[in-house]
Write a structure and sequence with these properties.
Number of helices of chain B: 13
Structural class of chain B: alpha+beta
CATH topology of one domain in chain B: Enolase-like, domain 1
CATH architecture of the largest domain in chain A: 3-Layer(aba) Sandwich
Number of strands of chain B: 12
Radius of gyration of chain A: 33 Å
Structural class of chain A: alpha/beta
Largest interface: A-B, 41 and 39 residues
Strand content of chain A: 15-25%
Order of helices and strands of chain B: EHEHEEEHHHHHHHEEHEEEEEHHH
Radius of gyration of chain B: 19 Å
Oligomer: heterodimer
Largest sheet of chain A: 7 strands, parallel
Strand content of chain B: 15-25%
Distance between the termini of chain B: 49 Å
CATH class of one domain in chain B: Alpha Beta
Helix content of chain A: 25-40%
Number of helices of chain A: 18
Helix content of chain B: 25-40%
Distance between the termini of chain A: 53 Å
CATH topology of the largest domain in chain A: Rossmann fold
CATH superfamily of one domain in chain B: CO dehydrogenase flavoprotein, C-terminal domain
């Protein structure tokens, strides 16, 4: 099994997490460089069963995924990743996992850019390194207006910090309400007002069809000459050409951007040259703390996946495929993975019978068998007994004979009772059979026989006499 | 349960090699005892090898020489339902039907059944009281503790546990053979040598080594087979392990015992053959209850009950007598 870690620019993935759980089952290859061309991506990833992708650095499109027959798992670093075609992945049977995430690094970095841009830190530091001294004037934050586009998890916190600096905070986004804005201490304004009044505009939107190109020439035209534009969310939300144009014409004081239409940024891109742009290489989330979460979670999830097994079963007539850890019992798989909660967990030790189901037509205790050992098997649970809206004869008999009180053991009792009748029909004797050397027939299934044969199913409400009557009645209808 | 890896092996040679070379690997068939042990943390294998796909190991067949061959992967319920076996050796079918529950009998394999570990509550206790079976050298909590369910024969100060299998008692009585395949090929272990007495190494239950795979149990034709019976006495009527049980098989000349096979469960670390009684019973009439009783007593002279199971000495003799009498009715 081969695992690839992509786009580890700083070569830190293996150092920041414990990959031993993955190494037990697989070989890890780390790529520190970025490949953009889809055919080169396919070429590189072809041998791998697992790829660990950092945020949106390498998009995994339908076209790419369809050419990776070995791929079984995408470990996406960070929250749900828009650059992975999850529908195609699902169609191809490729599992996708995500890691934990923390917005704090991006919130803090947004303020690094705002502060650096307002005070010309990049310009002054570069001058000093080149042998120079003071170059220009900075601007205060106190008393200025902060325009926040998008008051989500990040925008809200950026707004709070602005208030702490003594700024006036105005906010806009398509679905922002006055209530939500005032909860943060911001004033809801319309889009034009925000761009017209803000001294600093900062963008905190999720990239989607609705937000792509949302900010362009008309908005920049409204901005004050002393205003600054900051983007730490996603490049394509902004019309890049329009931004370059206003910066070239110096119609605003400057821009600070961490995100771009194309990443990594091409070498000849104007952002690399314009003196009124403070551009950074998409490092908003790039902190050691968050990387430890990213790679730690990824290593953990990949290891768990490598240990888990694919199990295809027919449950109540339906083909189902689930991924399970080896230690998962059939009972837990039915309840947790297939949401069939009619099968009950009583003792979980094979003592009470509440978990009884049929595997290949035979009653078994689902708590004492591993789900991963059921591949290819036919399983029936209490949910599968009803047929065309009609209860199974034993279900009907349980109602007629009042075979239950609290109901907790009932599904196990019914599954067991059906098997008791089938076993008697098949001629199986029991410990209550007077002479095991003689053939056994269904007509020999006395109440004593039923009691003995049902002894693996406990009922704390002690409905035993009625349960025995119900099984006897159903046996009589066979 | 703890985390472990699971794989499947359908080739016996590969399964044996994997087991031989890996101390942390366990075979799993029915899993009904192993998963219980794992849930109680009394077994912590790192790798399980599913052997249910091994070919031809689930068959129950009559061999040309008259032996009954029971594949190690045959399920308890299939063996108990086999009409040929029921007629030839009812004691085996009865021992199976008196064990576990209908569900468990559908799951549990014959090989796994005789490999079951003791139900001693101290051994099964996840809280970790001293137990030499679980942690060699830690001591035996049952020796001076609650030992009502424990041995009256063959125990040592290191372990007073009993073997829980009913089937094993019947197989011991019939002098069955365990067919074992290992790295060096196949070998036969007489059933009465398969399980061990605890001695100073109670962590070892039986004669198997790493890389040993039980492939079948063979029951030779015995003249006592058809007139056999299994009697089990326990704290509740059904679905419980034995306090005391007996497998009896007899051959008679009219009402007089020509030969007797008697083995008991619930009284030792292994199925306990009543050798002295078997000899003493020869020639005794089934109608002479006093003579039957005193012949059986021959095997209880050296009984060593513990603090809480003195009752087993008398109970076991009564169970042996009744099993013998019922077997005699079939002669």
């Amino acid at each position: 099994m081969q695992v690839a870690i992509l786009d580890d620019y700083q070569n830190v993935a293996l150092r920041l997490a414990d990959w031993s759980g993955v190494r037990r089952h697989a070989e890890i290859t780390v790529f520190n460089d970025h490949v953009a061309d889809p055919s080169a991506v396919v070429e590189r990833l072809r041998p791998f069963a697992v790829v660990c992708v950092m945020r949106e650095r390498t998009p995994l499109t339908k076209e790419i995924l369809q050419q990776l027959p070995n791929l079984k798992l995408i470990a996406s670093i960070g929250p749900p990743n828009a650059s992975i075609d999850s529908q195609t992945a699902a169609d191809l049977g490729i599992a996708v996992t995500a890691t934990g995430y923390d917005a704090a690094p991006t919130i803090e970095f947004t303020w690094s850019l705002i502060l650096a841009s307002m005070r010309g830190v990049d310009r002054e530091a570069a001058s000093l390194k080149a042998g120079g001294w003071q170059m220009g004037l900075g601007s205060n934050l106190r008393g200025k207006s902060l325009g926040v586009v998008g008051l989500g998890n990040i925008g809200r916190e950026v707004a709070r910090v602005g208030l702490a600096f003594g700024m006036k905070v105005i906010a806009w986004s398509q679905n922002l309400t006055e209530e939500k804005a005032s909860a943060v201490g911001a004033t809801l304004v319309d889009k034009q007002t925000l761009f017209r009044e803000a001294d600093v505009v900062t963008v905190h939107l999720v990239l989607s069809d609705r937000t792509r190109g949302l900010i362009g020439a008309p908005e920049f035209a409204l901005m004050k000459p002393a205003a600054r534009f900051v983007n730490t969310s996603r490049g394509p939300i902004v019309d890049g050409a329009a931004l370059i144009e206003v910066l070239r014409a110096r119609r605003i004081a400057g821009a600070a951007v961490d995100v771009f239409d194309m990443e990594p940024l091409p070498p000849d891109h104007p952002f690399r040259k314009l003196d009124n742009v403070l551009a950074t290489p998409h490092i908003g989330y790039v902190t050691e703390d968050l990387y430890r979460t990213f790679y730690g979670d990824a290593a953990d999830r990949i290891a768990k996946w490598l240990e888990s097994l694919r199990v295809s079963v027919t449950v109540n007539g339906h083909a189902r495929t689930i991924m399970v850890e080896p230690r998962m019992t059939l009972l837990d798989a039915l309840r947790e993975e297939l949401a069939l909660t009619g099968t009950k967990k009583g003792c979980d030790r094979g003592e009470c019978g509440a978990c009884t189901v049929h595997v290949e037509g035979r009653r078994v205790l689902s708590c004492m068998t591993l789900a991963a050992m059921q591949d290819g098997k036919r399983i029936t649970t209490i949910e599968g007994l009803e047929h065309n809206g009609m209860l199974h004869p034993l279900q009907a008999a349980f109602i007629e004979h009042d075979g239950f009180q609290c109901g907790f053991c009932t599904s196990g009792q019914i599954m067991s009772g059906i098997a008791v009748i089938e076993e008697a029909k098949a001629g199986w004797p029991s410990a209550a059979t007077a002479d095991v050397t003689k053939p056994f027939a269904l007509s020999d299934l006395s109440n004593t026989e039923i009691r003995e044969r049902m002894s693996g199913n406990l009922c704390r409400c002690a409905c035993y006499p009625n349960i025995v009557d119900a099984v006897a009645a159903a046996a009589g209808r066979y | 349960m703890h985390s472990f890896a699971l794989s499947r092996e359908d080739d016996p040679a590969k399964a044996i090699a994997a087991h031989a070379n890996d101390e942390k690997l366990a075979f799993i068939a029915g899993g009904t005892d192993l998963l219980g042990l794992m849930k109680d943390r009394a077994a912590l294998p790192e790798r399980l090898l599913d052997i249910n796909g091994l070919a031809d190991l689930a068959r129950i067949e009559a061999l040309p020489d008259g032996d009954l061959r029971i594949g190690a992967l045959a399920r308890m319920s299939d063996v108990a339902a086999d009409i040929d076996l029921r007629r030839r050796v009812p004691v085996i079918a009865e021992s199976l039907l008196l064990a576990a529950s209908g569900q468990l009998r559908n799951m549990a394999s014959i090989g796994g059944n005789i490999m079951q570990r003791t139900r001693c509550a101290y051994f099964r206790d996840d809280d970790g009281p001293p137990c030499n079976k679980r942690r060699p050298g830690s001591g035996c909590s049952a020796r001076r503790g609650l030992n009502r369910n424990h041995a009256i024969f063959g125990w040592s100060d290191d372990c007073v546990a009993t073997h829980p299998s009913d089937l094993a008692v019947a197989l011991a009585a019939m002098d069955a053979t365990v067919i074992v395949r290992g790295l060096a090929g196949e070998r036969l272990i007489p059933f009465t040598d398969f399980h061990r007495l605890p001695g100073g190494a109670p962590q070892r239950d039986n004669a198997l080594d790493r890389g040993d795979l039980i492939v079948a149990i063979e029951v030779p034709p015995r003249i006592e087979g058809p007139a056999s019976h299994y009697l089990k006495v326990r704290d509740r009527e059904s679905y419980e392990f034995a306090l005391v049980s007996a497998a009896a098989a007899v051959a008679t000349d009219r009402r007089r015992l020509r030969s007797v096979r008697l083995a008991m469960g619930g009284i030792a670390h292994k199925p306990w053959r009543l050798a002295a009684a078997e000899i003493a019973l020869r020639g005794v009439s089934l109608d002479d209850v006093d003579a039957l009783r005193s012949a059986i007593a021959e095997s209880f002279i050296d009984a060593r009950p513990l603090d809480h199971n003195v009752f087993k000495v008398e109970l076991a003799q009564r169970v042996a007598l009744r099993a013998l009498q019922t077997a005699g009715e079939r002669a």
